[in-house]
Amino acid sequence: MIALSPRTLVATNRFVCEICNKGFQRDQNLQLHRRGHNLPWKLRQRTSLPSSGGGGRQGDAAAAPPRKRVYVCPEPTCVHHDPARALGDLTGIKKHFSRKHGEKRWRCERCGKRYAVQSDWKAHVKGCGTREYRCDCGILFTRYICSCVLVCIELAMDTVPSSLLS
Description:
Elements: E1 2-3, H1 6-10, E2 15-16, E3 23-24, H2 27-34, H3 59-63, E4 71-72, H4 90-101, E5 106-107, E6 114-115, H5 118-127, E7 133-134, E8 140-141, H6 148-159, H7 162-165
Parallel strand pairs: 1-4
Antiparallel strand pairs: 2-3, 5-6, 7-8
């Protein structure tokens, strides 16, 4: 289980080149960049799981299966703060924290809806205002959720004499 601080989750460019101050989100990217400055660099190899054949004792693999990394939300009131409800990857926990607990920096110019994750905002902007739905009563809506029923009921209530409603 990995618990990261909120500052770490929203940080961009955590790895900075000491020569040109260029920032990178991943250490691997910084290491590749360092090659351009002729600085010492080292790429970390992904550790592979031990194979079940040959070299070791038979009971080793069954005794301690490799544990999967999980990431918990640092917000104590969040359901994903519980290790049983933890998220499985770093990107997932970063997006979750931004969506649910972060500042919503991107705003749709058409409808005013705000987003904390830029990719969510971009996906919304592509389709916002492009689809229209017409109710049986003739009212035009931009969402399929028929809030028209409420509008139609309200309009009907205004036209019905109050003596009939009692």
